[in-house]
Amino acid sequence: MTATDRERDAMRRALALAVRGPRGVNPQVGAVLLSPDGTVLAEGWHRGAGTDHAEVDALRKLAPGAARGATAVVTLEPCNHTGRTGPCAAALIAAGVARVVYAVADPGEASSGGAARLAAAGVEVEAGVLSDEGRALLDSWLTVQRLGRPHVTVKWAQSLDGRAAAADGTSQWITGPAAREDVHRRRAGADAIVVGTGTLLADDPALTARRPDGTLYEHQPMPVVLGARWIPDDARVRQHPRPVLHRDGSRLFDEWGDPDGSLLAELRGLGVHRVFIEGGPTIASAFLRAGLADELLVYVAPTLIGGPRLALGELGVADITQQHRLDVASIERLGDDLLIVATPHAVRNEPQEGTR
Predict the structure, then answer these.
(1) I want to staple 159 with a disulfide (CB 3.0 to 4.6 A). Which of 133, 227, 305, 329 is the partner?
(2) Active-site residues: which are they?
């Protein structure tokens, strides 16, 4: 049996509920309980570590026995382990739920298996409903579970001829107000923002996430500066509401051989799940060359600059067979500019291990 229209509508509602929960160590999950005739009985979402998971949150809003024969629509496969809370699969079985519909499989080695447990108890299970939307919601969390490091977004702005700055190094502003507003909104969704000292000394960025009126978003990414050069005492980043993390960058990509010594491992240890790279051509190229970019945001302005200041540097491509192929997720017009969102062709958010 495939998902019904009402179940798909309920999944869209569950996705909207999920984002009410905090982004962090635990996934954002939403749930909707439907009666056999498709009426919404209850809704729930996960409010953070140690609190009820979305399914249990919804069940607690019903009288005992009221969920018997119901359908549970959940953004993530019900878990199958006991952590700070009990297994959601067991709670759904005990409540008498007849059918479970979910978007994304739980990647956890310990917490997965909820679907199999439900099926063994006679509960009908439908997987993969609105899976693309579910994975988009959980992208950074899935990356952490799959790769053991934060999700990395590499952003740059360029002219139509691929330049990031004029010959003298100036780069403010290639793109227009709409593109800059979009960048700040995305910064506000990140846990850390990374630049190199070259960009910091040339542009003196504040590295804050600001609204169009200049006020700060409630959530501010941790400013991270890479490079051996000293950050001037009067640099704008020194006024950031969060302390600056300054590293020389020498251990930037050691995680494959020395996981505990790398920058990304350090950031994950600090609770960072989403890293936003704005560091100029040197830093952006380094992350791409190392295969550490999960998402690319390329803002293209309808202007020509020429000269030597390319948006990207050396990527280790010796011949055309080594080119970095991309999957374009979207192309959006922002004022006069274009935003291209892409992912490296080999990146797939289908993790093999993790916890919930």
Answers:
(1) 305
(2) 55
